[in-house]
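Here we describe the complex-level prediction in full. Unlike the single-chain runs in Section 2.1, the two entities below were treated as one system.
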Amino acid sequence: MRIFQKTNFNFIRYRKIAYGFSIILLVAGMVSLVVKGLNYGIDFRGGSEVVIRFEKNADVGQIRSVLDAAGVSGTLKQYGMDRSFLLSTVFQGDTGQLKALVSNALNDRIKGNRHEIVRIDAVGPSIASDLKWSAVKALLASLFAILLYVGFRFEIKFATAGVVAIFHDILTVLGLFSILGGLFTFMPLEMDQSIIAAFLTIAGYSITDTVVVYDRIRERIRGQKPSEYERIFNESMNQTLSRTIITSGTVLLSVFVLFIFAGPAIRGFAFAVFTGILIGTYSSIFVAAPLVYDWLRLTNSSVRLRGSKVS
Amino acid sequence: MKNKRFNLFLIAIVTLVACWSLWPTWRDYSLSKQLESFASPQDSLKYALTHREEIENARKKSLKLGLDLKGGMHLVMEVDQIDLFEQKAWNKDGKFSAIMQSVRLKASQSDARVIDILSAEFKGENIPLSRYFYDIRNSDQEIVVKLEKESEDALNRAKEIIRNRIDQYGVAEPVITTQGSRKIIIELPGVSDENRVRNLLKGTAKLEFRLLREPEEMVRTLDRINSYLVQNNQNSAAVQGSPAAETSAAATAPLPNGAKPVAPVGMQPSAKPLYDVIGVFQNGTAYTAEASKDYVVTLLRRSDIQALLPQDSELLLAAKPDIGKNGEKLYSIYLVRKAPELTGGVITEAKATFGSQGVQPEVLMSMNSEGTSKWARITGANIGKRIAIVLDGAVYSAPVVQSKIPSGSSVINGIGSLEEAKDLEIVLKAGALPAPVRIIEERTVGPSLGADYIRAGMLSLSWSFCAVSVFMLVYFKKAGIAADIALVLNILIVLSVLAGFNASLSLPGIAGIVLTIGMAVDANVLIYERIREELAEGKSVITAVTQGYDRAFSSILDSHVTTLSAAFLLYTYGIGPIQGFAVTLMIGTSASLFTAIVVTREIFHLLLTKNLMSDKSFG
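The structure predicted for the assembly as a whole is:
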């Protein structure tokens, strides 16, 4: 079976449209980040969270009023699956007290519908800021490592464009998180540690995709005149298109399965990776390679590529 | 073809090792299924007893499940370094306390290391660290190094003591590690009584025997504080509300006979602000009601109040309330000497029992020889006086010394329940922590949620495996089979490496495997697409396969290295659950380099030599 027979899209010619599209996405995301901000999870915000599961259907309003009356301050939301609720409060060193308070109030006031406290998380403010910093460090370090590696294997122009594409992907997903955050009860889209893991996965995947396109360009560009670059870039992208789409497809399939089956704890992560891979696939074709092309064209230089090859 | 033989050999070894490493997991699973299948619990028990060794062996070597899947508690505790440094300092004065106060404030607001904040703060005040720490001849630099060493030691000692406590309490497979210079990470799978564990871990377990001051001294001190407060209130009544007003509820609680009468409380500053919240018996014992306890504690902590106490003395509250006449809870207050006569370091044995009447739980302690002789001397010299038994700054009891105790035995009573006495026994045996610790992160997953997670994880795994492998079959036909075999081997390798290295599988770890399933076929897709291209150029199958593998190799290597480095950094900087994800992703990515390049290629070789491959085999 083949999805693409021989394709012959002129990606380079339409790159400006793609640039425009990317810029709109990014600007929209940035505006939302500034105006609306992000929804931080307790990993980064600090605080306590209690997940309460009821035996039968329960009404959010009723539970909320019961907890209010018991003096539990905080917000209560439906959590992922049915019959579960997420209570988030400020950080309390002794979660035992919180648990007892919630448990007693619910036992007293909501009879005939037993509940179970299935999860309690408490993250102190100092550890929250530690987590935030290590997340930022991990992201920056991996971007730098990728820049070095690709710069070493290809050339600095290729590496820079690849890292720009990663930035593009991560910032777009971050923007989406800000825009869509809190809109859906089944996925609150909070920023927590797992989203940082998603970002690093996206970074790894995005550069993988980009490197495959680069690799083909490198293979074909050797000894060619700069006037031939447009044709070579286009042909390389067309030749790798089928692979790009198929691997993205298999990963998307896996992540979609995660999104559906793996429960609310993983849903935000799955959403981030899913959109990130969609955008990463798009950016390796429409952002990374065209940027290299433009750079080569504007500086009027020919490429001196490192790397072995080819028989 | 030597090389080819080597590859086949390698594949066989890897497969065998993977299966061998996962065998206990399979045994463990089938044995527990077997145990459940018996009709009666007796049969099941009998089977368990006869197969005990096998079951235990399998369990020990099987793939561990993470806390989130099994249910349990994940705690991060922080050692209070400032307290530790304060302990290390000598000739402390007001200036020192003021500086430490501001260090404490700054440390709570920033991520910088406490030792750096401390030395910067002292430098800012132009005071050499040697005025308070170690030897006067030491430079700041030397002292910083020494203090660093000190806090490192303290962290390790704290870890060991906490491990002791947990071992005594009895948790299967606890994982206790240190992180950085002041954090201890504790993972306790399957813990059901979180409250008890928390209390067990939290206390410093600093046991002290301290002499009580004379009752007259106590009365005089309280009077002094009271009159100071009166004066203070008159000065500041206009500015701040009277403390008595806040605690009026407490003060109106009826006090037992023999106590000084309670002054009527209004919004006006009281004439006896202290005696509104503290009652005093004729014999000099003082107490406060439960409702006003917090207020009294903060009051007593104020530095201006501390200054009113007699030299080398301290006011401490009882750990447990006495029940008053009308059922109200009253906490006794003791004036004790600051310097302990004896500390918990001499305790060698502790045992929780019931007291002489057989109802009150208590903890019997015995001391080492040094402690025994000291204890004999102390008790001998103080017959008729009271000695308070203080644990973590709270007085458990303050018995009157009846006679000299030569045996080195002592007892803690005033304990609420036998369970609590048992926990005291544990912490006393394990020894005192070098500095207070506090819980800064806690994650508890109940067992039912863990079971849900397992189900969700397994569903995701099987669905994504099915989806991807069916897709590969449909899209690449015969070549897809090779890719699917490689995929199975890949998952086997990931699981077996986890089991072999005693790492545990968590929900994020499963997510990593699911993601690996999607990504691992990438290498095969690259190769197959390349082979298709070569075939389209009219090359023979054998040449196309060889060139396809050769030419795709560079892309595969680059893409794997980049993914691996991202996962590695995630592992390095990530904490807890995220590391689980990073680990499976790393193993999966490395394994797919092997499975996609070596394994599928061997399969093709095999098929090609048997003439089972044609140019149609690649879809």
